[in-house]
Amino acid sequence: MASASELVATIRAWAACVNEKRWDDLDRYMSPTYNQNGKDYTPESWAAHVREQVAPELGGDVRINEDSILVDEKTQCVALSMWFKFKPKKPFLGFEPTGRDVWLIEHGFVWFSEGKLSKALFVINSDHMRSQLSSPNGEQHIPDLISEYPVPKAEAPLSRAKLEETYRAYVETVNSRRTKTDYAKYVNQPEAALNNKALARRIVEDTLAAIPDLHVKIHHLIADEKSQRLAVWLEFRGTPVKDYAGLVADGQTVSFIEHATYQFVDGKIQRIWGVMDLDSARRQQRPSKEQQQQQLVLGL
Questions:
Q1: Which residues does 143 contact at the CB level (< 8 Å), separation at least 6?
Q2: How far apart are CA 103 and CA 212, in angstroms?
Q3: For the chain, which end, N or C, has fewer CB atoms within 10 Å of the first or last residue's CB respectively?
Q4: Which domain of life, per UniProt (predicted)?
């Protein structure tokens, strides 16, 4: 079993291979069969995917920039956040190239087998990219990066087990519709806590108002005692009763994924960095030809 430091070193070496285009070195860090978002690759076929599909989509180059890494040594799993900055050279997400830089934020979980990457789940913030591409005068859309937020000092840090227990209790307040009465039990300064620069409480309330039967399921979770941070892979399922975030009230039940990282301070959530794959829910409602053409081939 690889140590936490070895897993982090492997992730960084893998990223360096991509950044430096050392494709022949990838097999040192990847299992013979690597599964990403449900698709199987060999190190060679994954390199070809990046070289022939991802790089052209990003304007001809790829550079992985590390944002955050949390490690679960027991399960040999890493929660990873990374960012890219690129200039599209062809139509991207339905928008023509503007010559301006676009930020791409990607979050996910990576599992290891015998110290090598064997499986990964990634999600991309497509809505943030659309906002950048649609800006008329090239306004800046600087992302809320985890790495730019110093770990706060805590007077009463939680153990790893207690972080997980507290978070599961927080999710249960959403599923049992107790957010109005219990939200403050789990969130520091409820009226100030942010999720990607937006008020976290308002996001929860708006989502529940639009999808009253919403159910949240925790699939994967990593808690880090030292930083008091927790990363999670969630599945949301429900039926919209009014238009919301590109979803329509057509009676169709949808499901979508979120990857989120939470900062805890003294036992309560202080800040959230969440990325939702709302495109997948929109496709379930309206799988138009135009939407199918806009799907990203990205994923690293």
A1: 83, 103, 105, 125, 128, 196
A2: 33
A3: N
A4: Eukaryota
Local confidence band at 98 (pLDDT 50, 70, 90 cut-offs): confident
Evaluate if pTM is beyond 0.70: yes
Q: First and final CA of the chain: distance in angstroms?
A: 24
The residue type of 255 is S
Sheet holding 268-276, edge to edge: 198-199, 194-195, 268-276, 254-265, 229-238, 215-224
User: Where residue 299 falls among pLDDT bands split at 50, 70, 90?
Assistant: low
pLDDT at residue number 289: 45
| Longest pairwise C-alpha distance within the chain | 56
CATH number of 4-147: 3.10.450.50
DSSP structural state of residue 157: P
> 3-state DSSP: the chain helix, strand, coil percent, rounded to 5?
30, 35, 35
pLDDT tens figures, 22-80 = 999 999 999 999 999 999 999 999 999 999 999 998 888 889 999 999 999 999 999 99
Question: H-helix or E-strand containing 281?
Answer: helix 278-285
User: How far apart (Å, rounded) are the C-alpha atoms in residues 254 and 249?
Assistant: 11
Rounded to whole angstroms, the Cα distance separating 59 from 129 reads 14
Q: What pLDDT, on a 0 to 100 scale, did the predictor assign at position 290?
A: 46
Beta strands in the chain (DSSP E): 30-36, 39-41, 65-72, 77-86, 102-113, 116-124, 194-195, 198-199, 215-224, 229-238, 254-265, 268-276
Q: What is the mean pLDDT of residues 233-246?
A: 95
Q: What is the DSSP secondary structure assignment for residue 50, as one 8-state letter?
A: I
Which residues of the chain does CATH 3.10.450.50 include?
4-147, 160-285
Alpha carbon dihedral 183, 188, 189, 194, in 10-degree steps, equals: -90
- Which overall architecture, per CATH, does domain 160-285 show? Roll (3.10)
